[in-house]
From TrEMBL:
PANTHER family: ALPHA-L-RHAMNOSIDASE C-TERMINAL DOMAIN-CONTAINING PROTEIN, C, PUTATIVE (AFU_ORTHOLOGUE AFUA_3G02880)-RELATED
A single GO BP: carbohydrate metabolic process
Coiled-coil parts of chain: none
InterPro entries: 6-hairpin_glycosidase_sf, 6hp_glycosidase-like_sf, Bac_rhamnosid6H, Glyco_hydro_78_N
Protein name from the UniProt record: Alpha-L-rhamnosidase
Organism classification: Bacteria, Bacillati, Bacillota, Bacilli, Lactobacillales
Segments forming domain Glycosyl hydrolase family 78 alpha-rhamnosidase N-terminal: 61-173
Pfam families named in the record: Bac_rhamnosid6H, Glyco_hydro_78_N
Record domain Alpha-L-rhamnosidase six-hairpin glycosidase: where: 191-486
Amino acid sequence: MTYSFVNSSDEKFQQVTNSSFQVNAHLLAQAKAPRLETKTVQPASAQIITGHQATTVNDDIIEVKPGQKLLYDLGNLYVGRFSVDCSATGSPMDAPLLLNVRFAETRQELDVDASQVKSWLPLSWIQDETLHVDLLPQQLAFPRRYSCRYIYLEPVGQSLKWQPQFTQPQFTAESAVLNEQVAPLVQAPSWVQQVDQACVATLRNTMQRVFEDGTKRDQRLWVSDFRIQARVNYVTFHNQTVPKRCLYLLGSFLDEDGRLPADVLTRLPQPVADDLFWFDYDLVFIMALAEYVSATADQDTAEALYPVAKRVMQFIESQLQADLTVGPRQDIFVDWSTDFDKEAAVQAQVIMAVMSLITLAKTVNDPDITHYQQLLTRLETSTRQVYYDAQQHLFTSGPKQEINPLSQVYMLLTDLLTEPEAQQVIDQLLSRFDLARTLTTPSIQGLLAEALFKHGRRKEALSGIKHYWTGMLKRGADTFWEVYDENDPAYSPYGSILLNGHCFGWSSYPAYLFRKYQVNGQD
């Protein structure tokens, strides 16, 4: 069964077809997993929480009395596994230890009552554990992987005759690039350096055996997130193994129509394509493959996966209207933070995908390149005629010719307009819309900044990044979030910040933009 995300639907997912993805065993065999690097992290501090009062504790062995909780702070957000030694002190142990544990990415999560959370997402993603311990002493080693900075231990209903005590806490952090160094932007303004460091930390945590979209929830490979993360990686860690694996994983699964899955589940014994499909994600795959080949000069991967990209483009072409426009579709994602009409945004992605396929066709000497070059010319002509309103200096979208910021951002990322026309669109975009309120994901905020950089609006691009990303820093972010609304920092599309990702791959994009556009001390 294949599904499509519909943000306005109560169910959020809508069935669209009975198609299924088939595995290409030869390509899948090339998707070799990287070896994860690890390091042991000791908590930076510990506190005993009694009611609303927190007391810092420096003892090696910490006793937790009835009514108290123990909070470990790792100092930064990490991804990995936790263990702690536990023993009993006082009278003989006359009852089990019942321990509630919360692994939290932010301090704000510690005060949320998980029992009150209602969400259309599985509540099993909440990083809470309940542990019965019959005999002490022993090491409590938690088998699951967590994304956290804070670890909250609360003995529940404990005996009054004895108390648990904890020692030797350690967190084993994991990442494919855990110990790799990234050259800092020492010539850039201090706020740029701070944002960049948090972007790099975000990417580092999400680079596991694949580029994970978020480290708390999903923990899988999503096409759109992957492209953003890979671009950041190419200018920071310069890792080739992880993006190569992601491309082979995605390219290993096609359905009979030539479509790719929106995501791949990779923590199973064998990778499995999820039964989800989004039209625009097929376009993103083609762009991501071209960018990988450009960054790595990996000719073998180009030749192995070009047939996949070409087959996907055949499907894309079959879906276009007679005038080569996308037309109204339900099976598109683009960005979930808005209820805007997304047709024009996807039309822009079609143009970018065809440009990327032309680049790949040159790399592998495909004689069909002439067809794609002609297709691009016709696409650009039709797109201007259908979507561009020269009188308003704005792009429209959909049957109602809606004017929204999403359309402008994506169209500005193409080469469709002359530079004077692009400047007029940008003037309208910046004056007409409250972009901080209407674009609340780092994904679209990053693309907005890229569109501004692309057309020489450096000051506005940096101002937008500073406003949005330092807003998260001011609210205590170690790594950047899945969603951020400055007017409602606790906003969650899932019903609770316990389900929000606070280390999310698509929010690392400024690290790419800073380097591509050479941000320095003169900015």
